[in-house]
Amino acid sequence: MRVLIAAPPPALERICGERNRDWIWSVAPDLPLVRGNMSRLPYVNPADAPAPVREALQAALPLSFFRVMAHAETAFPDWMRWGGTLLKGLALDPLLREIAILRVAQLSDVTYEWAQHEPIARSVGATDEMIHALGRDEIGDDCFTSDQQIVLRFTTEVVRDVRPPDDTTAALTGLLSPREVVELLMVIGQYMMIARVAAVTDLEVDKPMGAAVYGARP
Question: In terms of pTM, does the model score above 0.85?
Answer without folding.
Answer: no
